[in-house]
Structure formats: structure tokens, C-alpha cells
Design brief:
- The structure holds two protein chains of two kinds.
- Chain A has ten helices and two strands, in the order ααααββαααααα.
- By secondary structure, chain A is an all-alpha fold.
- Chain A has a domain of 202 residues: MetI-like (MetI-like fold), CATH 1.10.3720.
- In chain A, β1 and β2 form a beta hairpin.
- In chain A, α2 runs antiparallel to α8, α5 crosses α7 and α6 packs antiparallel against α7.
- Chain B is mostly helical.
- Chain B has one domain: MetI-like fold, CATH 1.10.3720.
- Helices cover 65% and strands 2% of the residues of chain B.
- In chain B, a hairpin with a 2-residue loop joins β1 and β2.
- Chain B is globular, with a radius of gyration of 22 Å.
- The chains are: A mainly alpha, B mainly alpha.
- At the A-B interface, α3, α4, β2, α5 and α7 of A face α3, α4, α7, α8 and α9 of B.
């Protein structure tokens, strides 16, 4: 990056450190933090959407729809989330490739033959001749969908609880004013449910942050991958030889996560205060008393 | 090979008893059920030991957080913050790298030679991390419960002349457990779920002795078919969750036995404690 870094073996001290920390691989490492943030930025709204759909479905008056929603909500309770992560990433990929093979392949053979999953080359997603960027992007997309499905179930659980927590009298009053079921849902239930959902959603946001290192398990080059790669001891054959520094890299990741969760915690408590304003809850009452 | 022979060969494979080689081709449903079930032994081992040991540390930490002396309170606060604020996955990696750095030959402390090689093995190293982690989460639960003990109960205790240690052991501690128990049940369930991370996070599985998810992953990699092994682990974990809920429910009933039945706190499962 800098001119002084042309011959890393000849430099020492601070210059060495500066050159080391700006090497091409380290720059990739810094970009991978952005991958994590990008994952959070896409997954959080997607999971919120999935959760909202799930909770609404579970409240539905049509029995099959309500069962579907309830199964989705119940799904994450008994089974570790890591199993879902490992499962969905392969399963989604295979389902996508199988559906594509039905459309583009000449023979529609059952793809799970013996010890392999085989579809014709045209049905591969992405095609084997596409650039590495597309392979990475597809892997990231699968990860996002997986996270959205699993966390959507958590969110659905919270929102379903929050919808049930809205005082019944509020809804009955709205019905007494002649609102239809849809109007009650849109005008009364949804605006009031957020204050009940917020503690749970805040909790989930923290869990989501803490689940991002699992990207490593899904085979993406994320921060854990780079911390292991860069920290591993390097012999003289490398430009910047050093001992086993993985401990320090992981300490760095730890600090990153601690800062991130701490900042989120403060943000969430501010938001809670704001949303409790004027609500008929203990929090709202405390705010009213403090103001009076 | 009949299914019964498979069970004899692989039923205890995860702890090194039985057939040495894992199946390599012609995977039967019975093999998958047996091996994954044998892996559950590790999940139960990690979960039970971490919970039992963690319970005691959690009580100590919860009390320390309630102390007036900042020299006791602050370290406890930091301990809980560090273990609750960072991903368990990273904690595993960090612990493994730190334990690897211990001198290979062992250390001499006060003339006693301590062997350190075993600390990097999953059965010890991962157990240590899970123990510290669950202690932090449970301490938070118990601390919250300690703070929400009704004021009237404490005043009543004092009115009867109970003070200090007696008040704590007879009134505060049982009430704390009773109030915190539903949340603690969730913590126990999600600790069992967290044990599946062990063999995916730095700690190597020696001689392919791994936990349930390790074997499920093995089968999924070999057969390219995730639709069989993962539902099998899921099935085992649902059974485990039911067993944990049953056991904690019994304890909950015991803790609430003096209350009229209509105001007992019921245990509700809430997936808010995965880490």
C-alpha cells in the first residue's frame, strides 16, 4: 500500500506494524466487518417481515393458515438454531437446483442418487463458469435467507405474544365503534403492540448480532475466517512472518462484539423510553410521574 | 448388519467404545439414528455438568452483583457483561487459542507439577467455557429475581426477627429461586442447544468422537442429503427439551408448593436466551 512496504523483510517497528496492518489480506479482513454489518442490515428487516407474517398467520381464523403460522413459531423452540443454519443452507441450495433442473434439464432423474446430489450442469446455481464473485454472492444470499427464516421464527414468537398482550378492552372498544376486523387490526392492534414487543425485539437484535459469527459455519469468508487465517503462525516464506497471533485476533473480535452489543443496549433503552411515552403500562406510568 | 448389531457397534462410538471406523457407504437409517444418538451423550455431558457447576457460581455472582461494596460488585458486573455481550462462538475460539498457549510440558506452581495438555481437549476446555457462560446468563436471571423479591416479604421476615444470614437462607434465597425459575428453565434448554457448537468452534474431535450435530454433519457431508440426518438430530433435541422441561417443571412445583395453585408461576418457553 505504502511505498515503504515494498520490501517487508527490511523494515521494523512501527513501519512494520503499519505495513502489516494494511496488507491486502488485512484490507479484506476489514471489508469482512462490512459483510457482517450488511448481513445485519438485510436480515433484521427481512426477519421482522417474516416474523410479522408468521404471527399474523398464527392469529388467522382459517385453520390451516393458523396451523402453518403456529408450526413456524414452535419450530425454533425445541431444536438448536445451529441445526437450522446447517440444514437450510444445503437444503435451500438443493431445492433451488432441483427446481431449476426441472425447468432446464433434458432428463428429470431424481437427483439424490447414491452418495451424491446430481443435476445436469445447466442447472447448477450459479453456473460453474460464473465468476467467483457470483459464487460468493450466492453463498451470502443463502446465508441471508437462512438467517431470515430462523430469526423470523423468533420474531414471530415475540410479535405473537405482543399481539396477545394488547389489552382486550382496547380491541373491544374499537369493535363497539363499528370497526371491521381489518380496521381493528390496522388501527388499534398494530400501533399498540410495539411497546409490548420491544423488549423481546431488542433481545432478538442482540441475539442476531451474536449469531453473526455463525456465518463462518455457513462457509463464508467472514471475520472469524479471516481472524483464523491471519492469526495463524506465518513462516519465513510469508511476507510478514510472525508467531501464533490468533488469540489477539479473537480478542479483537471480542472487543468488537462487546462494543456493538453495548451500544445497541443503550440505543434500545432510549427507544423503549420513547415508545413507553403515554402508554398505559408501568413504564409509561413511571414516565408520567417523573414528568409531573 | 442388522440394526441390533449396528447399535452394538456404534451405540457408544462417541466415547470411543465399539467399532473404530465410521460407516463409509450404504448408510442405513439405523446407522444414522444410532450414531447421532450416541453423539447425544456428549451434549448431555456438557449440558448437565455445566448447569450443575454453573448454578453455584451463578448464585455467588448474583449475590456479588447485589453487594454494596463496589470492589465486589464491579468485577461481577464486568464478568456478566463480557460473557453475555459476546458470542459464545467467539468465546470458544478465544478459550481454545488461550489454552493452546499454555506451555505444553505443564507448569510448576508452588512445587506442584500441573499437566496442561488436557485443557485443550473439548471435554475440559469446552466444558469450562460453557460453565462460565451459563453462570453469567443465570447470574443475570437470579440477580433480576433477587431485585424483584416483594418488599413485604422482607419486612415480614424482619418483623419475625430474621436478619442477616438467616433471613437470606430462609426467605431471600428460596424466593429468588422461585421467581427466577421459569427464566432459568429457558436458560437450561438453550444451554443444551448451545452444546452443539462445541465441535464446530476450534475444539477438535479426536478420533471422530463428536456430539450429535457432528455426526449429523458427517452424514450430510457424505450423502449430500441434509433431509435425513438433520431431522434426526432435531428429533433427539426435542426429546431432550421435553426431558429438561419435565425435570425443571418438577423443581418448579417443589419451589411453589406453599402457594395456592392459582397463582403459581407457570413455565413458559421463550426462545430469548440463545447466545
Amino acid at each position: 500500500m505504502f511505498e515503504a512496504c515494498a520490501d517487508p523483510k527490511a523494515i521494523e517497528g512501527l513501519t512494520w506494524a503499519a505495513c502489516y496492518l494494511t496488507s491486502a489480506k488485512h484490507v479484506d479482513f476489514y471489508w469482512s466487518f462490512l459483510t457482517v454489518l450488511l448481513l445485519l442490515a438485510i436480515t433484521a428487516p427481512a426477519a421482522l417481515g417474516m416474523g410479522f407474517l408468521g404471527a399474523t398467520a398464527a392469529r388467522s381464523h382459517v385453520a390451516p393458515v393458523s396451523w402453518l403460522g403456529k408450526v413456524y413459531i414452535w419450530m425454533v423452540r425445541g431444536v438448536p438454531d445451529i441445526i437450522f443454519f446447517l440444514f437450510f443452507v444445503i437444503a435451500l441450495d438443493q431445492v433451488i437446483e432441483y427446481s431449476k433442473s426441472l425447468a432446464v434439464c433434458a432428463d428429470h432423474a431424481w437427483p439424490w442418487q447414491g452418495l451424491e446430489f446430481r443435476v445436469c450442469p445447466e442447472a447448477k446455481v450459479p453456473l460453474s463458469k460464473s465468476s467467483p464473485f457470483w459464487h460468493q454472492a450466492y453463498g451470502f444470499m443463502l446465508a441471508v435467507v437462512t438467517f431470515a427464516i430462523v430469526f423470523g421464527a423468533f420474531v414471530a414468537n415475540v410479535i405473537f405474544g405482543a399481539m396477545n398482550a394488547v389489552p382486550r378492552a382496547q380491541l373491544e372498544t374499537a369493535e363497539a365503534y363499528g370497526m371491521s376486523r381489518r380496521q381493528v387490526f390496522r388501527r388499534i392492534l398494530i400501533p399498540q403492540m410495539w411497546v409490548y414487543a420491544l423488549p423481546g425485539l431488542g433481545n432478538l437484535w442482540m441475539i442476531l448480532i451474536k449469531a453473526t459469527p455463525l456465518l463462518f459455519l455457513l462457509g463464508l469468508k467472514d471475520i472469524v475466517y479471516y481472524a483464523r487465517e491471519l492469526g495463524g503462525s506465518k513462516t519465513q516464506a510469508y511476507e510478514y512472518p510472525h508467531g501464533d497471533w490468533r488469540l489477539w485476533y479473537f480478542l479483537g473480535l471480542m472487543v468488537f462484539y462487546l462494543t456493538f452489543t453495548r451500544v445497541s443496549e443503550i440505543g434500545i433503552s432510549k427507544l423503549t423510553r420513547k415508545l413507553s411515552h403515554g402508554q398505559a403500562t408501568a413504564g409509561g406510568e413511571a414516565l408520567r410521574r417523573a414528568g409531573a | 448388519m442388522t440394526c441390533w448389531e449396528t447399535i452394538q457397534a456404534y451405540g457408544l462410538r462417541s466415547i470411543g467404545i465399539g467399532e473404530n471406523l465410521l460407516p463409509r457407504s450404504d448408510f442405513t437409517l439405523c446407522q444414522q439414528f444410532t450414531l447421532i444418538g450416541s453423539g447425544m451423550l456428549w451434549n448431555i455431558y456438557f449440558g448437565v455438568l455445566a448447569l450443575v457447576a454453573g448454578f453455584f457460581l451463578a448464585n455467588a455472582i448474583a449475590l456479588a452483583r447485589n453487594a454494596r461494596n463496589p470492589l465486589i460488585r464491579k468485577p461481577a458486573d464486568w464478568y456478566v457483561f463480557i460473557f453475555r455481550g459476546s458470542p459464545l462462538f467467539i468465546q470458544f475460539f478465544l478459550a481454545y487459542e488461550a489454552l493452546v498457549m499454555l506451555p505444553k510440558g505443564g507448569v510448576d506452581i508452588l512445587g506442584i507439577h500441573l499437566n496442561t495438555a488436557w485443557t485443550t481437549r473439548a471435554w475440559a476446555g469446552a466444558l469450562l467455557v460453557l460453565f462460565l457462560n451459563t453462570a453469567a446468563y443465570s447470574a443475570e436471571i437470579f440477580h433480576g429475581a433477587l431485585k424483584s423479591i416483594p418488599k413485604g416479604d422482607l419486612e415480614a421476615a424482619e418483623a419475625y426477627g430474621l436478619t442477616g444470614w438467616k433471613k437470606f437462607i430462609r426467605i431471600e434465597w428460596p424466593t429468588m429461586l422461585r421467581l427466577g425459575w421459569p427464566a432459568y428453565t429457558n436458560e437450561a434448554i438453550f444451554l443444551f442447544h448451545a452444546t452443539t457448537l462445541v465441535f464446530f468452534s476450534g475444539f477438535p474431535a479426536f478420533a471422530q468422537k463428536g456430539d450429535a450435530l457432528y455426526y449429523a454433519n458427517y452424514f450430510a457431508d457424505k450423502t449430500f442429503n441434509p433431509f435425513v440426518p438433520y431431522p434426526i438430530v432435531a428429533f433427539y433435541f426435542i426429546l431432550l427439551t421435553l426431558a429438561v422441561t419435565f425435570f425443571y417443571g418438577r423443581v418448579n412445583r417443589h419451589l411453589n408448593r406453599h402457594l395456592p395453585s392459582n397463582i403459581r408461576s407457570k413455565i413458559r418457553l421463550r426462545p430469548q436466551l440463545i447466545r
